[in-house]
Amino acid sequence: MSDSTDQPDADGQRGDLPAESALPEPFPTDWTRCLVLVAHPDDPEYGMSAAVARWTAEGRSVVYVLASSGEAGIEGMAPSIAGPIREEEQRRSAAHVGVDTVEFLGFPDSRIVNNSALRDAVADSIRRHRPDIVVSLFSGPEFGPGMPNQSDHMEFGDAVGAAYDDLVAAVGVDSREGRPQMWFESDPQPSHYVDVRGFVEPAIDALAEHKEYLSVLDPRTPVREQAKAQVERMVEPVDGLADGNPVVGFTRMRP
Ligand SMILES: [Zn+2]
Predict the structure, then answer these.
(1) Domains of the chain
(2) How close is the Cα of 39 to the center of ligand 1, in Å?
């Protein structure tokens, strides 16, 4: 998120840094229950889980609901074998950041579409868990120039937005009734940030639990090293924020 913020322009200002008033704000703290909705195992592990570790350490409750079991994600492994392995890796991973409840909705990995079945399943999970806030994965078309997002992430994010809007449309927000106050996405150009100083290690531990997945993805680099490099890249400090501590960014999508 800080790729272009350290280039001074002619008058010594950082050219691409937003005006001070446009800097991300601290993430809200007036909530206790969060539902994290993502498409695949390991989706929470690229930065978001550092924020989750902080939230659960503060006594908040966080639940993970995943659209798929990631069964198509391990090259050379049959989906019927990969699915259960990835579910187990996700459960162990979640435990590192204080998340005890991990659910899988059973939608097909790499073929996720924003259809009524998916929207209904998302809405049902929101109603059951009654979160104050919903957090999902970035659903924009690209993370940065030349870094396109995956179709599954975009379709799923759209389904989360539609489900949220349907729940809230008729009668407004009331988390006791399963209509959360806020919906955030993780975002490389965020509106809000969480200071994750002290919570980077558990996030690395969480990503490193995706052992089978990471060791097939990059057989030459030890899994723990891969996890450390990935997480540290995602929680880089941003000039002007959080006293230079590592941060995780989110954008407030609703209301
Ligand atoms: Zn994913």
Answers:
(1) 31-254 (3.40.50.10320)
(2) 6
